[in-house]
Amino acid sequence: MSTFTKQQFQAFRHGKGEILHVAVQEDKALGYFYNQLTAIRNVFPTARCFRADGIILLFMEDDNENGFDPKRIPFRPKSIIEVAALGEEFPLINPPHNMVEFPMAVDSPDSNDADLAKSILIYRGPHSLHNKAKPKVTPKPPVASSSPVFTSLPILHNFNTGDDYFGPSGPPPQAAQLAPLPNDIILDVTSNNDKMVLTSSTHLRSLLRMLPGSPIRRLDLTFDWEFGRGDLKDLVHQLASANVNVSEFKLDLKEHFEDKERSRTIRSGQGIYNPLLELFSNTRLHSIVLSNVFNLSERTSDLTAAIGSSVLSAFHFLGYISKNDQHRLANILSACPNIIDLALGTHAKKSDEMQSELSRAIGSLTRLEYLHLYSMDSAFAGSVNDDSNSKIATKNAFKGDISDNINNDSENTNKANSSSFSKLNNSSSKLWSRNSNTNGVFGNKLKTTATTTTTTTTTTIAASNHTTTSNYGLNKSLDAMKLAELVHTSGDIDQTATGDMIRRSANKIKVLMLPCLSKSSSSNGTSSLELTTAVSQSRSRDEGRPNHSVLQLNNPAFSKLTHLDLSVKLTESSHELLATFLPKQDLVHLGINCNSVGLLNTARLAELKSLSLRAVSEKDLKPLFGAVLGRGRQCKIESMRLDSICGTIKWLPDLVTAVALTRLYLVDLGATVLTKMLKAVDLAKLEVLVIDDEEYDWTTERVLIGRLGQFRPNFVVQLGYKTSMSKRDVLNLGCRGVTKTWTALPRHRVKVDSSVQLYDEYLRSVLPARA
Hints:
The structure is a single chain. The protein is an alpha/beta fold. It contains 15 helices and 31 strands. It has a 22-stranded mixed β-sheet. It has a three-stranded antiparallel β-sheet with strand order 3-4-7. β27 (about 640-645), α12 and β28 (about 665) form a beta-alpha-beta unit. α3 packs parallel to α4 (about 230-240). The chain is flat, with a radius of gyration of 30 Å.
């Protein structure tokens, strides 16, 4: 019987997609490894048949010729198994002629034993070859054994990874290298496909034994079983070992908020997730991404000073965040003052409104450059817009000492109340006291002054000055956080406080995306976002009204901006500012809705690579049609998202015909408009077509059936659904056949995902790759 000491992984690929690896199962009674269909379908839901090295793999049977349940296919460690849906044709390939022979010794001369040995040989394959390098195997001489069947085989490690910061195109030619590993194995470390799905504690322990001494720097794991605290503890302790080189770590616990099985493990104090907190004291980890981790607060304890000084520069907590969780996250952030990249929340479930404690903790990160908040309303959401409420502290906000001697000018009052959002203290990484006169991420220290006796009032907000004082009592410091990226996907954003943070970052910010995902809140409220770096207003005592606004720009304000997506109302001075620099700006992405549609009049539309239009009417898009459809016009737009376009539609079909798109997202357009768009879109270069519309049905699909001959070889239509309850027959792959019918596309041409997953994929495709 063969003896195996290391976990096995099988490489799979669907079409020309990325190579993914699934941990194989072990039949301990028979002593061999196999691929379980259930585990494969966790990664490839439509998997029906498989091929390796040109040979179709049949499902395995026992000695009585009965199939296993769950079904099994053979383990092929040397091969990348191709996956296809039922009836899907594999591409034609020539049979292999240069198969590598591995040494095998069989004590019994019986040929049946030899055949059996061939069927249970377990080779270790590299995690991903990508046709860049083949495993180099040095045969070992046969070893005597008393077992009827035995093998002597080298073992290849199952990882193949590289530096994540090379971007999606991989490393430059000079960076590619082969790293030698023990047992005369050559491992290609130029690929970044290192995501692994583990399905048992045994798989995890086998993986952990492989880490010491390996060159792995980036580890991406998914736990897909009922793991325990001991599993997390083993993982965290191994990552902290002296000879483990992992510096970037991702962990997906695949939890759902309503998961009844997982909810049974909830406990307070020393909970199941407590070992995860030790990750933040690991002096080699520079990046931690935790996904689908629910009830963090109830399952962990507070961090203590004993964790030491963290070197963490990137932290993403991608999951639902409750009010209780915010306390724990604030506790974590206070111990990690060097964070540059922070992302919180998930589009799958809207998090509770950000509390002042978490806001202050984010504000204490003086090195922060990338801030992403997903479906989380910022603290102090909404603003006070009338004089009668000028003395009322913002709901759920930390109450700073704001003087009652505040000028009753409504705009200044709004700024004063909202500016109590935060304090930034660059010299400290500790959380501030709850009763101190400080606040959080979007604002600065408050200092009250009273100037109510002057005839003329001047308000100056200039990022270049060390301190500037206004009549409503703001004392702003130069030492404030300046962001390169701000992405906030929520319908409730404090306009004044957010504008203050944007102004401080005006000379540095590259990505400013404030898309509103809620139709109901996209145009509600009366407050407006102020982007200008300086606004001067004069008020005459006699006239009692402002004269005019004078922009005092800090050049080069917003000169680095490449991605702009605004779904919020803008002040008049903000429109003036944008009209000043957008005509000269080479934007890569522009996103607008009914509140910001005026940007189409000033942006250089012909230079855009990506465009998002949401909740606008076609009549508002005349500048776009003129820039793209006019005679002799050239357009570089490759990605377009059309969401909830209202009114009569006449020119949009012409737009998607004229532009050679590679990605098109059609969201909530209605059956009539959707039909027009599907008839008109140019399919020549289209790689991604996403249709997230509840009115999409079999009738609408007939348009695509008629154009099936124009599809690219691997083109797939991605259909979305809002909730599992809203799934219709057209979204059920089981209702589709192997080949097309007069009403349905073939199964392999359709992919179904939730609206949340589709939007996440869209956002990743739009955002720039980190360098």
